[in-house]
Amino acid sequence: MVTLNAKEQLKLDVVSRVFTQKVKFETALKILNCSERTLYRYLKRFKTEGALFVKHKNTGKNPANKTNLDLEQNIVEICKDRYHDFNRTHALEFLADKEKIKIPKDTFNRICNRNNILNKRLKKRRPKIKRRRDRMPEQGLMIQLDGSPHRWFGFRKTCLVIAIDDANSEIVYGEFSPTETTFACMNVIKGVLREKGSFEVLYVDKAGIYGRDPLTSFSTKRDGFSNMKERLKTYDIKVIFAHSQKQRDVLRGPLIHFRIV
User: Fold this and answer.
1) Which of 63, 187, 231, 256 has its CA 20 to 30 A from that of 8?
2) Domain identity same for 49 and 83
3) 76 and 155 inside one domain
4) For residues 252 and 197, what is the distance between their CA atoms, to the nearest angstrom?
5) How many domains does the chain have?
6) CA distance 39 to 33
7) Claim to verify: residue 44 and residue 78 sit in the same structural domain
8) Is the pLDDT at 86 greater than 70, yes or no?
9) Residue 214, in any domain of the structure
10) Which of 115, 133, 150 is the last residue of a domain?
């Protein structure tokens, strides 16, 4: 006796009706949602095999890679008796070294899941919570400065050095330059000072033109080239490097707007 599921029953019914010319070929293609070649193959197999053509040839057969039941029971007994307090990786290593039983890791995991053994889980370290840096509460407190090299004008690559206000992302000043040089950054800062006045903090990347970060031992790209930093001291502007949240401690003190210079 052969048992058919709903999909197999539909396939048999449609193919038999096409074979007896009770259903059009094009209608059967839409019902079965298959190609012409596939439907021709169904008809050929229906003619030679009858209703059994809908069944896969491996139906009722054991897979070639199926784990032997006796081997599985032996593994379960060994794990319960000797390795009951091991994790699965450790137990699998001992099975290979001590018991000479070598099986794939995925197979061993399925055996453990089916028999509810070795469910011990290693304690994972709690992930470190990373928080976004808060924006400044007032305008004119901190300016972010960076360069964006891009083909702004056709095929020639140019660097846009731009300064924005950290509080509201307002573009304060910007200039195009061949590269992100010291003079290009100085010109942008000069433009900010001219348009808005002085500010408290300059937030930049680790480029050596800004000198060494005094809060950490991190070495920038070019520590000795600090003309920019010396110029910023003239206006009492602090420099913060964008690689840690610890630098926010230097912002303690009165919050003020742009100072006219």
Assistant:
1) 63
2) no
3) no
4) 21
5) 3
6) 10
7) no
8) yes
9) yes
10) 115
Token output for 222: 């070019």
Question: Of 257, 176, 254, 186, whose CA–CA distance to 226 is shortest?
Answer: 186
CATH number at residue 205: 3.30.420.10
Q: Residue 252 above 60 pLDDT?
A: no
Task: Based on the fold, state whether residues 109 and 19 are members of the same structural domain.
Answer: no
pTM value is 0.43
Q: Which two tokens stand for residue 102?
A: 């070598």
Per the domain annotation, does 46 fall within a domain?
yes
Domain that holds residue 227: 142-251
Which has the closest alpha carbon to 174: 185, 165, 163? 163
Q: Convert the pLDDT of each residue in 155-193 to its tens digit.
A: 889 999 999 999 898 999 999 998 888 888 889 999 999
CA 177 to chain CA mean position, Å: 35
Q: Are residues 48 and 74 in the same domain?
A: no
